[in-house]
Amino acid sequence: MALARGGGMKIIAIVFAVCAFAVAVFATCWALSMQEPDVVSIGGLWVLTLTLVVLVCYAYDTNSIARVTRDRWQREGVLGATYGMVLTGENGGEGRTMFQIRNPSNLIVHARVNCNFRLYGQPVKAGSLYDGEERWVVFPQQDSQGWFTVESLLRQGAKDVEDLCRERTAANRKVQLTMLLELEFQDELGGHRNLPARHHYFDFVRWVWIPHLGESKASI
Known about the structure:
rod-shaped
């Protein structure tokens, strides 16, 4: 899109310059064909023509620089934004999970976080900031941090940490409590980026959220 706009502006500048020179040449030839050509007027016409062409070229260059700067800001705004997730507290506790959005750019970034939590396949919720219902606002070169607890997710299925620890087996450990993390970033200039959805599961023995490191061919 940006390349198309840049190419269009370049064509307009070239067409304008060609037309201006064509008009100047035609006017010069017409003036010289007269018995007493006005040399001063002809010179003034060429000065005006060259001035207009220079101004158009200057405007094109200025527009190109502004477009490149804007594109760079957009890339830095959404490409630099990242997330972090750290479990705090003791094993077997409430499982407080600190969730952080980092914005190293000079732009305000809005983030939409949808964790898609499931307890044994049934959806459970952690709150509007984690269920995609409310956007995070992350100011330039700052981090925004919130938290949710594993315990609050389990209560929605009438479970507690002890239940999940007792029920954990080698076969079901990856499906007890899961997260399909979807992240969407947008900066104040309209830059937009969606990260691929990332699967996680909570391991009640290691006491940590574990992300899937790969993806199947079907999801590519």
